[in-house]
């Protein structure tokens, strides 16, 4: 019992004894420097990163439409820009539009791909000459059949 009282008295003396306590493992100067660095990062780097990520996410439907040779690529690009202005409200529509295939495009334009994609396809000169020769032969045959 005396031993327990002695230990309790030792704890009380240790608790009442003044000692230096530190709230941080850093010195006050190091804390100030670290706080300044964190504040500068939060003020300058974080907004720049967030704006860049926001912009990259909002031009993603435009890139998808361009990669898929979407016939309404320019309209999707415009919707992406409008989505940036309106804070991202139109972005899901641009995303859906970029992945969709227009239903009446073939009916309206007679092709499933836009004209600029068709004009970018390369044809060899020899292949073109062969096709022209075949076309002339077919035209000559048609003229002969009409005469007889």
Order of helices and strands: HHHHHHHH
Radius of gyration: 38 Å
Q: Structural class, please? A: mainly alpha
Q: Largest sheet, described in full?
A: none
User: How many domains make up the 3D coordinates?
Assistant: 1
User: How much beta, percentage-wise?
Assistant: under 5%
The tally of beta strands, per DSSP, is: 0
User: Segments where pLDDT lies below 50 for 5+ residues?
Assistant: none
Mean pLDDT comes to 82
Number of helices: 8
Question: How would you describe this protein?
Answer:
- This protein is an all-alpha fold.
- The chain has one domain (39-147).
- Helices cover 74% and strands 0% of the residues.
- It contains eight helices and no strands.
- The protein has helices at residues 2-16, 28-58, 60-67, 73-85, 91-99, 105-109, 115-120, 125-147.
- Helix 3 (60-67) runs parallel beside helix 5.
- The longest helix is centred in the N-terminal third of the chain and has 31 residues, at 28-58.
- It is rod-shaped.
- The termini are far apart.
- The model has no long low-confidence stretch (mean pLDDT 82).
Name the descriptors.
single chain; 148 residues; mainly alpha
């Amino acid at each position: 019992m005396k031993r327990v009282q002695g230990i309790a008295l030792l704890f009380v003396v240790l608790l009442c004894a003044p000692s230096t306590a530190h709230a941080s493992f850093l010195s006050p100067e190091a804390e100030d420097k670290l706080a300044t660095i964190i504040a500068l990062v939060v003020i300058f780097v974080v907004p720049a990163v967030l704006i860049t990520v926001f912009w990259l996410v909002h031009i993603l439907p435009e890139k998808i439409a361009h990669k898929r040779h979407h016939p309404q690529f320019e309209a999707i690009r415009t919707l992406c820009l409008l989505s940036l202005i309106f804070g991202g409200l139109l972005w899901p529509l641009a995303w859906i539009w970029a992945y969709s295939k227009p239903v009446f495009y073939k009916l309206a334009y007679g092709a499933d791909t836009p004209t600029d994609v068709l004009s970018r396809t390369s044809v060899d000169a020899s292949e073109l000459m062969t096709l022209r020769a075949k076309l002339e032969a077919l035209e000559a045959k048609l003229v002969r059949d009409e005469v007889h």
